[in-house]
Amino acid sequence: MTNLDTASALNIPASVATLQYKLRSEPEKIQLQIINELIAVGDAGLAVLMEFLLERQPGLDQGRSSKTPIKVVEAAVYQALFNTRATQVVDFLQQHFPTGTVPLRSQHNLDYAPLQQILAKQEFEAADKSTIQKLCELAGSAAVQRKWIYFTEIESLASVDLQTINALWLAHSNSRFGFSVQREIWLGVGKNWDKLWEKIGWKSGNNWTRYPNEFTWNLSAPRGHLPLSNQLRGVRVIAALLDHPAWFE
């Protein structure tokens, strides 16, 4: 079936069908731009985006590890649809993608759906707080009670859970935020902490970025800016986190 045949079958205007074709065939950067164009079209654009997600659904639920590529475009389509709050879209997402496009795997049966929903709304400050809460839950009841984790507790955190948290941050930030992004930058500066702090916007000169108002809670932040990884309690927590076995699997 040709591009125009598909458009006719779905009652989609030819101009929208062109965007549909580009969404399927263009490089990722252009695909991300086309998503917004389709949202602006209205119902016909929403129909294209929903069809696109259904087409990609079989490839989304794959084994998740630190080396599994994140489906950034699919996550962006889901996110754009999610934030329209259109009735037909809400029903569609609840039926086919109730927990988004990232498999929410957990060794300890933790529920990552709330974190996924917060990230889909691009509420990054709330997502950062939720992430710290989840790390505490992984570390145990004592960490939950104190609301922060010791660096000695990091190694025991389940790899699959860290990979899920990381995948959610990657998917809903166009791969700008996440533990693996911070690790990549850290390795790129030769594990030099001072250079890392500058690169990710946690320090400027001799001045530390003050929590929370001086942090940037949107996608204009430097790459790797989030999540905070408990950075307010020194380097040992993030050092243990970036060296966790999850990133070698």
From TrEMBL:
Q: Name one Pfam family in it.
A: GUN4
Q: Report the GO terms under cellular component.
A: outer membrane-bounded periplasmic space
Q: Which residues form the GUN4 N-terminal ARM-like repeat domain?
A: 13-98
Q: Which domain of life is it from?
A: Bacteria
InterPro entries per the UniProt record, alphabetical: ARM-type_fold, GUN4-like, GUN4-like_sf, GUN4_N
Q: Which GO terms describe its molecular function?
A: tetrapyrrole binding
Residue ranges constituting the GUN4-like domain according to the UniProt record: 106-245
Q: Can you name this protein?
A: GUN4 domain-containing protein
Species of provenance = Phormidesmis priestleyi ULC007
